[in-house]
Write a structure and sequence with these properties.
Helix content is 33%, strand content 20%. It is built from nine helices and eight strands. The chain has a four-stranded antiparallel β-sheet with strand order 2-1-4-5, covered by helices on one side. The protein has a four-stranded parallel β-sheet with strand order 3-8-7-6, with helices on both faces. It is globular.
């Protein structure tokens, strides 16, 4: 049984990726002017269109809110920007460059995404904030934690930033996990910040603290926020 399972796992690993880089991709500099959706269409199954003829311009430094019923396509729209999915028709451009022509690294390095489902690893707090990347200094990680209102609880942990937080951050509260997710977004210093229901599952006290952290962080940044609460989208 274990051999059969392993074969299925390797079969999955060996599957060709649906979305690949073009042979000579463009190195995209951080956003300078605007993200544009030009007549964007998208379908998950190749038949039913989830998005039809979407035209949006999001200028540098703007905060844009997407609101609507569950299943309306809000999360789908933001997942198309870093090419987690590929448009079925039309194009998304950053400063006039089609995202399909950009290298994955230059595109995704300038985007931070915070969702309501925080993905954390059985790693140290520092490793989770840095997302496993060695390039961030201890000081930069600490500053990101302070900006995310996370430093206070981190310093009270048994080993501070070196505390291993368990599978999926199981030793932390929901608000603490979300603050680490915000710190991870901040440490990257992204040109584009995407907040997908980032505070919807928190109690009001945690939400207010995280909301203040986000408000300070987004100044001058291009931000797309998906939310149901009016308080979250009032600044958009």
């Amino acid at each position: 049984a274990s051999v059969a399972s392993a074969e299925r796992v390797f079969e999955f690993i060996d599957m060709p990726a649906d979305i690949v880089e073009v042979p000579e991709p463009v190195e995209l500099p951080p956003l300078r002017h605007a993200i544009r959706f030009n007549d964007v269409h998208f379908s998950y199954d190749g038949q039913t269109e989830v998005l039809r003829g979407i035209d949006i311009e999001i200028r540098k430094g703007e905060m844009v809110a997407l609101v609507g019923f569950s299943g309306a396509g809000k999360s789908t729209i933001v997942k198309l920007i870093p090419r987690f999915y590929e448009v079925s028709g039309g194009a998304i451009t950053i400063d006039g460059v089609d995202v399909r022509q950009a290298s994955f690294q230059s595109l995704r390095d300038q985007i931070s995404i915070v969702t309501q489902d925080t993905i954390l690893f059985n790693e140290s707090v520092r490793g989770n904030i840095a997302f496993g990347r060695e390039v961030y200094s201890v000081e930069r990680i600490r500053q990101a934690a302070e900006a995310a209102r996370a430093a206070e609880f981190i310093t009270k942990l048994p080993e501070g930033y070196d505390t291993v937080i368990g599978e999926s951050g199981g030793t932390l509260s929901g608000g603490q996990r979300q603050r680490l997710a915000i710190a991870r977004a901040i440490v990257k210093d992204p040109a584009i910040l995407i907040l997908d229901e980032a505070t919807s599952s928190l109690d009001s006290e945690s939400e207010q603290a995280i909301q203040r952290a986000i408000e300070e962080f987004i100044v001058g940044r291009t931000t797309i926020v998906i939310a149901h609460r009016l308080s979250t989208v009032q600044r958009a």
